[in-house]
């Protein structure tokens, strides 16, 4: 693998790691806010509710990210196919235009003799 691509891949992994950790911390923060609204919970109950809340939110985030990543792959394939079709059309029109112009010039040259 090329050094630039390897560096970009490493940076993307670090970014993903940091974003995921930020999401987990946000889940923990929201869990604490949720349990703070339930003052009658014992310490053990509060910890259990926070643990379940964080686990549920993390799983929901994981499912969402998986779905988004899958859709991104689908879109990449769709756009690549569209780009390939457009490129083929452009090349065909260019060849046709060049052929038409060349034929027209040849016809005019023959007519001018």
Task: Summarize the model shown.
This protein has 113 residues and is mainly α. 91% of the residues lie in helices and 0% in strands.
Low-confidence stretches: none
Mean pLDDT: 93
Beta percentage is under 5%
Major sheet attributes: none
Protein structure class:
mainly alpha
Helix content: over 70%
Provide the gyration radius in Å: 30 Å
User: Number of DSSP strands?
Assistant: 0
SSE order, one letter for each helix or strand: HH
The backbone outline, from C-alpha atoms, is rod-shaped
- Total number of helices: 2
The figure for the number of domains is 1
Distance between the termini: 61 Å
Question: What does this molecule look like?
Answer:
The protein has 113 residues and is an all-alpha fold. The protein has one domain. Helices cover 91% and strands 0% of the residues. The chain contains two helices and no strands. The protein is rod-shaped. The mean pLDDT is 93.
Please specify the SSE layout and strand pairing.
Elements (H helix, E strand, L loop, with lengths): L2 H34 L6 H69 L2
Helix pairs in contact: 1-2
Quickly list its features:
single chain; 113 residues; mainly alpha; 91% helix; 0% strand
């Amino acid at each position: 693998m090329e050094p630039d691509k390897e560096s970009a891949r490493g940076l993307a992994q670090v970014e993903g790691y940091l974003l995921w950790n930020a999401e987990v911390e946000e889940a923990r923060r929201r869990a604490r806010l949720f349990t703070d609204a339930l003052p009658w919970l014992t310490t053990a109950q509060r910890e259990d509710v926070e643990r379940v809340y964080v686990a549920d939110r993390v799983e929901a985030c994981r499912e969402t990210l998986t779905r988004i990543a899958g859709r991104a792959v689908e879109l990449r394939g769709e756009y690549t196919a569209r780009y390939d079709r457009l490129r083929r059309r452009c090349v065909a029109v260019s060849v046709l235009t060049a052929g038409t112009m060349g034929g027209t010039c040849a016809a005019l040259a023959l007519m001018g003799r």
